[in-house]
Design brief:
This protein is α/β, with parallel strands linked by helices. The chain has helices at about 1-15, 20-35, 80-85, 130-135, 155-160, 195-205, 220-230, 250-265, 285-300, 320-330, 335-345, 350-375, 400-405, 410-415, 445-455; strands at about 15-20, 50, 90-95, 140-145, 160-165, 185-190, 240, 270-275, 380, 420-425, 430-440. It contains 15 helices and eleven strands. It has an eleven-stranded mixed sheet with strand order 1-3-2-4-6-5-10-11-9-7-8, with helices on both faces. The two termini are about 25 Å apart.
């Protein structure tokens, strides 16, 4: 049924970069056989899963939205993909994304944009717009994404779906094509909080292939979601609202939905507390130094030799000539911009001034969160300052686009978990609005409990 749905609507939505109905059906039959043989499979066995193209898979190509990896086939599955297969989930296709996960609209994909199922002239958010759109358009019930600065939560908000960024290190990054290793986190998305929690439970856990993977006994997120269903579970929950996240450019309809949700929380007996986080103001600036720095280093491996594309300059050339011709042709403009910013920020004379300062700001933001979580259990904010914007809206000033990430970036800088869930639509355009919840590191289950009550 999902393959039929993809065939019917994906021409208009373009959520998928690759599907292989033969491979998906064969995987489904194999799960049936495992079940027939008496294997104990979990609740998600046989359920189709869309996989962001940043995650490598053996059965379909993995491009990370870039021409430089066109047609690339990984010899191994990302750990999260292997775990999903072991639980009996079926890979139904690889989803579109901004090139190397750099962007907020999925318009930086080298393979063309994804369109928002709510309004085809709008973006689905990014960088994981393909996964969010696939789930929103009922092309897949579940999807995996990656969140470095909001790429699971923001597309969830813009497409009326649920998306979670786990605690940093909670879910393995092995086989997730790296963007910025100290910020990257793989996570689940779905149409309901419980479905998201069920997928979270499948992929969470220690992985010796990822040196930052946490060895922690995680409670069941699904149990927390089921436990939270009764809105009475909100009684006594202390909810922080950060002064600095009431962004000046916030759309009126987004603010209205958020305020209404806060009022509902109070009505259910939650205690709403205003939080001052003075360093959040510098989060975007710090992020856009740390991310390009780490990205410039991670992307150095696309050297025309080891992976994907190789372009020979006319009349042959030196090794350096081949590399620069390949990288010149294979990377899109946003990727080039960030490589240049990153190598500049890391260069000998500037390292302390830029990268070093950004790391200090990061610590101050972590302290703001620590002080806040002394007073509250969760922090709530709108996930994004606006609803989905028009496809093809070109912002001459990339800074303006970067500033839209101000609500989601702090959680990545601090390594804490965040979740976005739909809270209705904005009155001016009828498009979905998302609520973001954040909790201290390791308290992912708290998010599912609260989100499930709010849902
Ligand atoms: N919009 C952010 C960026 O462009 C988020 C990226 C991400 O989470 N992968 O960097």
């Amino acid at each position: 049924a999902h393959l039929d749905r993809i065939a019917a609507v994906d021409g208009a939505i373009h959520a998928f970069l690759a599907t292989d109905s033969e491979a998906s059906l064969a995987a489904a039959r194999a799960v049936d056989e495992r079940r027939a043989a008496g294997e104990e499979l979990g609740e998600l066995a046989g359920v189709p899963l869309a996989i962001k193209d940043v995650l490598v898979t053996t059965d379909m190509p993995s491009t990370s939205g870039s021409k430089i990896l066109e047609g690339y086939r990984s010899p191994f599955d990302a750990t999260v993909v292997a775990k999903a297969r072991a639980a009996g989930l079926i890979n139904i296709g690889k989803t579109n994304m901004d090139e190397f996960a750099m962007g907020s609209a999925t318009e930086n994909s080298a393979y063309g944009p994804t369109f928002n199922p709510w309004a085809l002239d709008r973006v689905p958010g990014g960088s994981g717009g393909g996964s969010a759109a696939a789930v929103s358009a009922f092309e897949a019930p579940l999807a995996l994404g990656s969140d470095t600065g909001g790429s699971i939560r923001q597309p969830a908000a813009l497409t009326g779906t649920v998306g979670a960024k786990p605690t940093y290190g909670g879910v393995s990054r092995y086989g997730a094509i790296a963007l910025a290793s100290s910020l990257d986190q793989v996570g689940p998305c779905a149409r309901t909080v419980l479905d998201t929690a069920l997928l979270h439970d499948v992929v969470v856990g220690h992985d010796r292939h990822d040196s930052t993977s946490l060895n922690h006994a995680w409670p069941s997120m699904a149990a927390a979601a089921r436990d939270g269903v009764d809105p009475a579970s909100l009684k006594g929950l202390r909810v922080g609202v950060v002064k600095q996240l009431a962004l000046p450019g916030m759309q009126a309809g987004v603010k209205a939905r958020f305020d209404e949700t806060v009022a509902l929380l109070t009505a259910q007996g939650a205690e709403v507390v205003e939080i001052d986080a003075p360093h959040f103001e510098y989060a975007v600036a710090a992020y856009y130094l740390i991310l390009p720095s780490e990205a410039s280093s991670n992307l150095a491996k696309y050297d025309s030799v080891r992976f994907g594309l190789r372009v020979e300059p006319e009349g042959g050339g030196t090794i350096e000539g081949v590399m620069s011709a390949t990288r010149g042709a294979g990377f899109g403009p946003e990727v080039k911009r960030r490589i240049i910013l990153g190598t500049y920020a890391l260069s000998a004379g500037y390292y302390d001034a830029y990268y070093g300062s950004a790391q200090k700001v990061r610590t101050l933001i972590q302290r703001d969160f620590a002080a806040a979580f002394d007073k509250v259990d969760v922090i709530a904010s709108p996930t994004a300052p606006t609803t989905a914007w028009n496809i093809g809206h070109v912002n001459e000033d990339p800074m303006q686009d970067y500033l839209n990430d101000a609500t989601t970036i702090p959680a990545n800088l601090a390594g804490i978990p965040g979740l976005s869930l739909p809270i209705g639509t904005a009155s001016e355009d009828g498009l979905p609005v998302g609520l973001q919840l954040m909790a201290p590191a390791f308290a992912d289950a708290r998010l599912y409990r609260a989100a499930s009550a709010i849902e």
